[in-house]
Amino acid sequence: MLAKCVQYQGTVMSGSRKHEISGVETVEPRRRQMLQGGVSATLGLSAAGVWERRVARGQSPAPRRPIRSVIYLFLTGGPSQHDTFDMKPEGPSEYKGEFQPIQTATPGIQICEHLPMLAARSRQWALVRSLTHSESGHGRGTYVMLTGTSAIPTSYRENRPQPVDLPSITAVAGNRTRRRSLLPTSVVLPEKLYHSNSGVYSGQFAGLLGNHNEPWLIECTDKPHAYHDYSGAFPNYLFNLHDGVASDKDDWTFVVPHLTLQPGMVQRRFQGRLSLLEQIDQQRRAFEQAANPAQYGRLRQGVAALMSDSQVRRAFDVRNAPAKTLERYGDNSFGWSLLMARRLVEAGVNMVQVNMGNFGSWDLHGNNFPLLKNFLFPPTDRAVSALLDDLEESGLLEDTLVVMSGEFGRTPRIYNVAPKIYKLPGRDHWAPCQTVFYAGGGVLGGQVIGASDRNGAYPTADPQTPENFAATIYHALGIPRDATWQDASGRPYHVYQGSPIRGLTG
Fold first, then answer.
1. pLDDT at 453 over 50
2. pLDDT 10s digits, 373-426
3. Which of 104, 300, 309, 394 could form a disulfide bond with 122, CB atoms 3.0-4.6 angstroms apart?
């Protein structure tokens, strides 16, 4: 018997929020209904999936509870505060750079002229211009910003992730928040953080929390870490880091998970279809080793249920999004990644970390200004602006914190760090000061917290640490101030190592 499809469209209210929904629901043959019914009874459908199905059947949807989520945009390589959100137009010529500031929609707040879309949305966001730490190397800087700790333990090993590493903020968030759907509580995409010279960064995994608490890594690049000299938001904004020009590579694609459940599929065919574990998790063997047979059986059932959930399938189908959506976000890896993050939050994920850039896209020791202007600012400005608009229009911005940072800032002085490699000058690593971008999640937009000196080198007001940075995320997720997490031996650790940034939220 073939499955029937029923089309539905309408508007529903949740509190004061209006939601437009449409789609096609499959009315399945009895055999398949029984199969998936058993899976759903075991694990439960996603909250969003149940809600959509109730509406499709003409039933009144159960009221939705406020969702507390975080989307963390990590600009790997370290963007310059001077050339983005803390410009110093009155500074010395060797400091201020080539770009001019423009007025935002908030009087008195200026940002770079090449971020016009974000400038127009300044009432949605706030800046913290005074985050500081002492680690100016990529590996150590990434460690402190992803774990939320300024003091790196003696056990740390550069580019050698270990089980004794401190867990990432994303891993802790996943461990300490309640699961709201079949999806994991925390996700990282579109690829792990990797340095082309030295390997995988430490601090981005679960570490002491144990591998069963790893954030769900969704690798979306078909050639992860394949090229040394190429970076950016492929395909439209892929550039040659050393030459400072558009890349001559055109074979780098964004691969999304395939979640199709074929009509008429029966139990004996599930084995082959469960290759989803290899496609989007990349951690099947770790799960297999960590779980007993019963646990792994439930995991396999969960994958089957994921495949049958329309909200989940939609979250991953970003390459086939409507043309207007792709134009809005940008038809490139930055846009696809942020669209996926937004849909994952809607589908029930509590925290999504998006690594924007590969091989240190923002690590501009040379060719700084043309690479920012032509290849990094356009997709970032468009994608982040689209994310904020999308979250606001859907009613999710109020309860979704968007955070954007790098591992550190850049030096005030502009010079050619490696003239034999780069044609034009850039800025070196600089840990003492960087600007962090916040929006949504109760953030009071149109404000600046903290300040740097006239050269953008050191905080002069309201300095903030990685501990404050992490605490702000945990607070946005509703994690209690006295919360703890435990390592494999049962030893407790305080989640909060600092206080949330004062004045950022209402």
1. yes
2. 999 999 999 999 999 999 999 999 999 999 999 999 999 999 988 888 999 999
3. 104
Q: What angle do CA 67, 69, 71 make, to 5 degrees?
A: 150
Q: Is residue 472 helix, strand or coil?
A: helix
Give CA 152 to chain center in angstroms: 24
Helix (H, G, I), strand (E, B) or coil at 130: strand
Q: What is the pLDDT of residues 314-340, one digit of tens each?
A: 788 888 889 999 999 999 999 999 999
The contacts of residue 207 (CB under 8 Å, 6+ apart) are 161, 162, 163, 164, 165, 166, 167, 168, 171
Token pair in block for residue 313? 């399938």
Q: CA 351 to CA 171: how far, in whole Å? A: 9
What's 76's DSSP letter? T
Q: Pairing relation of β-strands 237-240 and 199-200?
A: unpaired
| Planar angle of CA 220, 356, 309, nearest 5 degrees | 40
Residues 109-119: tens digit of each pLDDT: 999 999 999 99
Nearest to 444 by CA among 369, 383, 376, 503: 503
CB 149 within 8 A of CB 202: no
List the domains of the chain with CATH numbers: 4-56 (no CATH), 69-175+186-259+352-494 (3.40.720)
Phi, then psi, of 355 in degrees rounded to 5: -85, 105
- Please give the DSSP secondary-structure letter assigned to residue 373: I
Per the document, the length of the chain is 506
Residue-level pLDDT at 254: 87
Could you identify the residue written with the tokens 């209006």? 18
Three-state helix/strand/coil letters over 230-248: EEEECCCEEEECCCCEECC
Mean pLDDT of the chain: 82
Calpha distance 145→103 (Å, rounded) = 30
Minimal CA–CA distance to 28: which of 258, 259, 274, 262? 262
Q: Is 454 helix (H, G, I), strand (E, B) or coil?
A: coil
d(CA 505, CA 332): 32
Eight-class DSSP state of 376: I
Q: Which long-range contacts (CB under 8 A, 24 or more apart) does 267-276 make?
A: 267/35, 270/300, 270/304, 273/304, 273/307, 274/300, 274/303, 274/304, 276/303, 276/306, 276/307
pTM beyond 0.90, yes or no? no
As a whole number of Å, the CA-based R_g of the chain is: 23
Identify the helix (H) or strand (E) that includes residue 13: strand 4-14
The residue type of 322 is P
Using alpha carbons, select from 77, 31, 21, 81 the residue that is nearest to residue 53. Answer: 21
Query: How do the residues of the chain divide into helix, strand and coil, expressed in percent and rounded to 5?
Result: 30, 20, 45
Please tell me the distance from the alpha carbon of residue 113 to that of residue 119, in angstroms, as a whole number. 8
- 61-112 pLDDT, tens digit per residue, is 444 445 599 999 999 999 999 999 999 999 888 899 999 999 999 999 999 9
Which pair of structure tokens corresponds to residue 88? 């110093």
